[in-house]
Design goal:
This protein starts with a strand and ends with a strand. It has helices at about 165-170, 180-185, 240; strands at about 5, 20, 30-35, 50-55, 60-65, 70-75, 100-105, 110-115, 115-120, 125-130, 135-140, 145, 150-155, 170, 175, 190-195, 205-210, 215-220, 225-230, 245, 250-255, 280-285, 290-295, 300-310, 315-320, 330, 335-340, 370-375, 380-390, 405, 410-415, 425-430. About 5% of the residues lie in helices and about 35% in strands. The chain is built from 3 helices and 32 strands.
């Protein structure tokens, strides 16, 4: 196959996953997970690992010294989990926003939403309230700029998740039975990019994005005036509605992926970009010049893509037809990828499980098993896959998604896994 290159391996060649957090493992009776993968969970020197754990009965943010093993609790939440995107059946207006926790890895500062407060905390454990979530809004994943000066808090009109999870929800996460994006379009709901000064807490600006459900935001690493955001779970035209850019200087919003066949270098197996594709999990390269995303062609194979801002060029590489196990792709500082799905060794038999989170717009079931290092050769249309270990997560619910991230030195990959009763954090060493 043109677009895959791996060395012949047996299961004995796969690196062991190393248990790194959760104290006594499966016996301890609580969940511990990484922060969401749109930010790092590691300090810039790879010394400290930031985590969310419910070991005291409520989710809180912890930091673990990877040399000494000492862990410190940085927050004091006693109100459970805040209702937000992904955490549909949690408490409205009360609790820790698990989806809101993001790390400024250069300065060891964590940002999070507690109840309706937008907060920050450093290694000294002093929690500072910066501002408040606007009334009547639903929150999601936040992001801090590379220079540490700005925090983006995306919100959406609260009507978007106005339902009773017990009677109008289904599956493990009690997600709404109605089409969420459909409600956005029919009722004219808006999302908002709220950008706050991390020193003063003042709202710097708020950009209204109509007819949109924003859940992921990411500042351009080289230019905080540019924010990448998404339309979550598009009910139509997912291939071109998912990824957007907002430029504050010009006050312009534009889509990133368009329809067409002008794809450079990559091997698309004859597929062209179309509105009927599925696209997801976009992220910036460190230099802010490119965006990497993944997804699947309409009625076709999975793929990984790259878009270059300055030239408007696209590269897309189709995965082998048998690579149908959903996974996330993230990057290290040298634009190597890691992945928690898709890969299969010859003879592998996929695990069959029922997962309510399979019922979204993505076409692939969440049954991937491998943590892999993936080196893209965009111009050649080729991916090098190096499976490191089986993560063995059951994928049942958002917290059990492996969401792998590289260490800053590129020598390790950290990930979540629930292969027993509880979610824990592991690493694979390259």
């Amino acid at each position: 196959m043109k677009n895959i290159a791996i060395k012949t391996m047996t299961s004995h060649d796969l690196a062991e996953r190393i248990f790194v957090s959760g104290c006594d493992g499966e016996a301890d009776g609580f969940d511990t997970q990484l922060l969401y993968f749109t930010c790092s969970s590691l300090s810039s020197d790879d010394r400290r690992l930031y985590l969310i754990s419910d070991r005291d009965g409520h989710p809180n943010v912890y930091v673990r010294d990877l040399l000494t093993g000492k862990e410190q609790c940085l927050t004091a939440n006693r109100h459970g989990t805040l209702k937000s995107y992904v955490y549909f059946d949690a408490s409205p207006g009360r609790g820790l926003g698990k989806a809101s926790v993001c790390l400024d890895s250069q300065r060891d500062v964590v940002y999070f939403i507690q109840d309706n407060d937008i907060c920050q905390v450093g290694l000294d454990g002093h929690v500072r309230i910066l501002n408040h979530v606007p009334e009547g809004r639903m929150t999601a994943f936040t992001h801090v700029s590379a220079d540490g000066r700005l925090l983006c808090v995306p919100t959406t009109d609260g009507r978007i998740l106005d339902y009773d999870p017990e009677t109008e929800g289904y599956g493990l996460d009690r997600r709404p039975v109605y089409n969420i994006d459909g409600r956005v379009q029919q009722e004219g709901l808006n999302s908002y990019l709220g950008v706050y000064d991390t020193l003063t807490g003042h709202l710097v600006y708020e950009k209204t994005v109509p007819l949109c459900w924003i859940t992921h935001v990411q500042f351009n690493p080289a230019d905080p005036d540019i924010i990448m955001f998404n339309h979550e779970w598009p009910s139509f035209d997912c291939g071109i509605r998912r990824i957007w850019l907002y430029d504050r200087r010009t006050d312009q919003v534009r889509r990133v992926r368009t329809e067409g066949g002008d794809t450079e270098g990559g091997d698309t197996h004859g597929h062209h970009r179309s509105a009927g594709d599925w696209v997801c999990h976009e992220m910036w390269s460190d230099d802010g010049k490119a965006i990497v995303y993944h997804g699947g062609y309409a009625d076709g194979p999975a793929m990984v893509g790259k878009y270059e801002l300055e030239t408007g060029r696209y590269w897309e590489i189709a995965l082998p037809e048998e690579y149908k196990a959903y996974g996330h792709f993230t990057m290290d500082h040298w634009q190597n990828l890691c992945c928690d799905g898709y890969f299969m060794l010859p003879g592998d038999v996929k695990v069959e499980r029922e997962n309510s989170t399979d019922n979204g717009p993505d076409p692939h079931k969440k049954d991937g098993e491998y943590i892999s290092r993936v080196v893209p050769h965009w111009e050649e249309g080729r991916l090098e896959w190096r499976p490191l270990c089986k993560h063995r997560s059951d994928w049942l619910g958002q917290d059990a998604h492996p969401h792998p991230i590289y260490s800053h030195d590129g020598r390790s990959i950290f990930f979540n896994s629930r292969s027993g009763k509880y979610v824990k954090v592991y690493k694979a060493v390259l």
